[in-house]
Design goal:
Blueprint lengths: L6 E4 L5 H12 L3 E6 L3 H18 L4 E6 L5 H15 L2 E6 L14 H30 L3 E4 L7
Parallel strand pairs: 1-2, 1-4, 2-3, 4-5
Helix pairs in contact: 1-2, 3-4
């Protein structure tokens, strides 16, 4: 069972779908770690917006930004260590961070393919491992949600 004010880590949360997910969870009372790797100003502005709205609602929701490149195992571990120590045991992981290259696979270079696999596959696995081993296994609760894109079809 998920607690009434769960802790959620949303990867790629500074823009787009991740931003919408972060808002939705926080507005329902979650404590959200807003992950970003490049869009610091967007992440910080989102957290201000979320925290102001949650304060008005009095729902216990909140947010805090955290910079981590999800394709980097050490960055991911640092993000989950931070979440577990500073926000609380992670109850929800939304693996949303992802990239694509705007070319057909025929035109993709090797380094483009490596970048896509490193973030979209390895990053999701690194985050799932960190969430599960960091607190979900111990608390015997949690949810891991993996997002995908229509571009993958």
């Amino acid at each position: 069972m998920i607690p009434s004010n769960p802790v959620a880590v949303i990867t790629g949360a500074s823009r787009g779908i991740g931003k919408a997910v972060a808002k939705a969870l926080a507005f329902q009372g979650s404590k959200v770690v807003v992950n970003f790797s490049r869009s610091q100003a967007d992440a910080e502005n989102l957290c201000i917006e979320i925290n102001d709205e949650c304060l008005k609602r009095g729902n216990g929701g909140s947010s805090i930004p955290f910079k981590a490149d999800c394709s980097n195992f050490d960055d991911v571990q640092a993000m989950f260590d931070f979440a577990n120590k500073c926000v609380g045991p992670v109850d929800i992981l939304v693996n949303n961070a992802g990239i694509t290259r705007p070319v057909s696979i025929k035109k993709m270079k090797k380094n483009d393919m490596t970048d896509v696999i490193d973030l979209n596959l390895n990053g999701a696995l690194y985050c799932a491992k960190a969430a599960y081993c960091g607190s979900m296994m111990e608390t015997k609760r949690g949810r891991i949600i993996n997002m995908a894109s229509m571009l993958g079809i």
